[in-house]
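README: folding subset

This subset contains proteins for which both the sequence and a predicted C-alpha cell string are available. Records are stored as plain text. Below is the entry for 4-hydroxy-tetrahydrodipicolinate synthase (310 residues), shown exactly as it appears on disk.
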Amino acid sequence: MRTAYHDLTKTGQWGDVFYMITGSIVALVTPMHADGSVAWDNLEQLIEFHIENGTAAIGAVGTTGESSTLDMKEHEEVIRFTVDKCKGRIPVIAGTGGNSTREAMHLTRAAKAAGADAALLVTPYYNKPTQEGLYQHYKYIAENVDIPQILYNVPGRTACDMQPETTLRLAEIPNIIGIKDATGDLERARYLIDNAPEGFAIYSGDDATAMELMLLGGHGDVSVTANVSPKAMASLCAAAIAGDRETATRLNDLLMPLHTNLFVEANPIPVKWALNLMGLIPEGIRLPLTPLSESMHDIVRKALMDSGVV
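--- output ---
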C-alpha cells in the first residue's frame, strides 16, 4: 500500500479538500556526512528507496530527522528538497513544531510554501505549557496557516503530555486533521479512536505498539523501523488497518527486534548507524548526539539480521 487517500468529512474547512494518509509513514532520518553537513544525494536516495518499497508518506525533519540539531534555514531546506524530489509521487508531512508558537508558525508557513501535504507539530517542549496553553498554541497556528496539521504527543521527550480531552477539543478545528500519539498507551489510543470526530486520523508514534493501535481502528504508524525495513512495515500497516491480525502479527513478530533495539540509545542514533551499515547513508550525526556506542553494535546488527534486513 503506497498511498491511500480517503475524502474527509469535516466541515467548516477553508475550501480545499483534505485527504487522510493511511499506512506506514516513515519518520525519515536526515543523512549527514562525517563533518555534519547534510548529505543531499543520500537523502534523495532514501526518498527513492521509500517510494520503491511502498511507504505511504514521508515524514521530513521530525525527531528522527534531527529537527533539534538543524538550524532554521537547514530545516526549511530539507523540507523543500524532500517535496521537490518526491514530485507528488508520495505525500510529504513536514515536521514544523517548536516550543515557541512563533517559531512553529514560521516553520509551518515554510512547509506550506514548499508544497508539503501536511505539517506535524510536536507539543512545545521544555517550557511545560498548561492544557489551555497547548490548545491556544495549536489553535493559533491552525487558524493562521492553511495547511492540514497533525498533532504530535511524545511526553517521554518533551516533558509535556497533551491530554486526550485537549486533543479532542483541537480535533474540532477544521485543518487539524490527526494526531501522532507516541505514548504507547493503547487505552488512550482506544479512547481517541472511539471519541474523535469522523475524518480525524489517529497515528501511532510507537513502533512496538503500533500494530495493536491500528487493529483498534487507528490509521497508520509514523515509524522509525520503516527507515530500514520499509516494505515489511508497509505490509504490516496494510494488514493491521484491514483487520488481518494473523498477517499483521506475523510481520510484527519479524520486526519486533527492530521495534525495540532501534531504541537502545536515543533515536536516531541506532537507526542512523543501521542505515550506515546497510550502505544507504554516511556515518554523520550532530552533537549533542553521538555515534552508536560500540557496545551496542552487535545488538543492532543482530536485530537487523533477525528481521531479515541484512
